[in-house]
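Structure in, sequence out. Go:
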């Protein structure tokens, strides 16, 4: 980034902070200096009662304000707040990361990725909930208000769209982390469906290299890709998915001193 770009980016972020006064409970806005046009989103209602509103988002499409013609799909756990009109902290963090003029994967240092223009935000689960610990309760409500069959169709539809979007993308970033208080068999079933499509794939697949507290890592202690929330995004690590659904960094030039948490 040259000096002019640095000051433009700094000025833009300052204006956003002043105009929004973003706090814990405030509306998080998209930064106009980072995106072109209005993001597109298929937000819809799943359950609506006097006591509860549950909504879904299968995909969020964002055009970045930079040169390029390639697309990247980032697969996280579930939507928090972001839609066509408002963003959330995690989505803004991912946008900030990919709007950079170029990226150099940690284990491909001689490479520069400078052509990402389109960002697809996907999730293992399409249900909106800023607190992933509440997702299991949402599943119960959906079953009670709709049916088991409806929930099954909801889960399958989301994964099918994610797979089709991944197939059409140039780059893929695995970023679902590890949810709290969520049934692990269902979680790993959805993870497996995504990974099965990426076994020996010609797609360029990455995970985020992150820093949380003093630890830097690219896979969690359970060997899952880290989620972008509650950490700093330092870069990308190129990975492959093997026949046993293991996510393995490509090459051997990543420092063994990296800590995993």
């Amino acid at each position: 980034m040259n000096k002019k770009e640095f000051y433009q980016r700094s000025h833009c972020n300052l204006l956003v902070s002043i105009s929004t006064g973003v706090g814990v409970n405030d509306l998080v806005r998209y930064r106009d200096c980072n995106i072109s046009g209005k993001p597109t989103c298929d937000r819809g209602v799943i359950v609506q009662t006097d006591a509860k509103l549950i909504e879904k988002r299968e995909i969020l499409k964002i055009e970045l304000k930079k040169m390029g013609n390639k697309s990247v799909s980032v697969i996280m756990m579930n939507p928090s707040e972001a839609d066509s009109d408002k963003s959330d902290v995690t989505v803004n963090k991912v946008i900030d990361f990919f709007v950079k003029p170029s990226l150099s994967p940690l284990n491909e240092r001689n490479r520069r990725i400078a052509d990402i223009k389109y960002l697809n935000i996907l999730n293992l689960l399409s249900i909106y909930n800023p607190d992933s610990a509440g997702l299991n309760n949402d599943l119960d409500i959906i079953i009670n208000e709709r049916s088991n069959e409806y929930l099954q169709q909801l889960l399958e539809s989301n994964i099918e769209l994610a797979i089709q979007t991944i197939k059409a993308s140039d780059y893929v970033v695995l970023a679902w982390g590890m949810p709290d208080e969520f049934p692990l068999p269902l979680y790993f079933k959805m993870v497996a469906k995504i990974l099965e499509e990426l076994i020996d794939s010609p797609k360029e697949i990455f995970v985020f290299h992150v820093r949380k507290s003093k630890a830097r890592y690219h896979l969690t202690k359970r060997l899952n890709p880290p989620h972008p929330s509650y950490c700093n995004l330092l870069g990308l690590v190129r990975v492959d998915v093997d026949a046993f659904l293991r996510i393995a960094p490509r090459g051997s030039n990543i420092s063994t001193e990296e800590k995993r948490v």
